[in-house]
């Protein structure tokens, strides 16, 4: 609470000479006051409430706020930028692959795709699934990713290669570029390929879900920006032969789980 007056209002007549008690109170209260120049550590016994239109403004990069509480209907506003975590935090989000198809995504290289990059399907031999923007944490970096998938049919022989995926991104205003490999206009963030186990039974895993983990993150890992880029998964199913004559498709992809390293409190 604020300091009381040393003497009540109206008890300071003209030509009044302060007593020793008055001077001791002046000195004690000045010593307990906040030093706006030298700073210091203060431990108020009750919360500090600042009202009026002025409010509180912190303008230095070293400003620190802890346990900030606003009154009902109040809010903390920032003129520019966002509060930055002193220790980066991690957030894990699972995105079902159904929203792009309204069903679990079934690998089929001859199938069509709903998304802005359907033209790239035949040229790179992969299917692309757009990741909805609400699953990408703005201002963060992607540090881990895995695809939940199933092998649909048992077999007596292993394929030559297990399923794989690449997370890629494309600038929203970029048109496709013709290259010797086809039409390409995007960049990779990370990739992973499912390592084939020793036996077909282990690969089938009873038809239960398995995880295809990203093991290769490119050094230039960009900061996520959904305002500037589309983010997609390039999926490739198992390849190399047709074990036991099993027809395509042989893999079903259910979801992608992504872990983001979050550095500030910007809206996601």
Oligomer: single chain
Q: Tell me the distance between the termini.
A: 39 Å
Supply Rg: 31 Å
> Low-confidence runs (pLDDT<50, min 5 residues)?
99-125
* Molecular shape: rod-shaped
| Overall pLDDT score | 75
The number of distinct helices, counting runs of at least 4 residues, comes to 3
Tell me what portion of residues adopts beta-strand conformation.
Answer: 25-35%
Q: Structural class from helices and strands?
A: mainly beta
How many distinct beta strands?
A: 12
SSE series: HEEHEEEEEEHEEEE
Major beta sheet, specifics?
A: 5 strands, antiparallel
**Helix content, binned percent:** under 10%
Overview of this protein structure:
By secondary structure, this protein is mainly β. Helix content is 8%, strand content 29%. The chain is built from three helices and twelve strands, in the order αββαββββββαββββ. The protein has helices at residues 20-32, 121-124, 200-204, and strands spanning 84-96, 105-106, 127-130, 141-151, 164-171, 177-179, 182-184, 187-193, 210-213, 216-217, 229-236, 251-264. The strands form three sheets. Strands 1, 2, 4, 9 and 12 form a five-stranded antiparallel beta sheet that branches. It has a five-stranded antiparallel beta sheet with strand order 3-11-5-8-10, with no helix packed on it. Strands 6-7 form a two-stranded antiparallel sheet. The two termini are 39 Å apart.
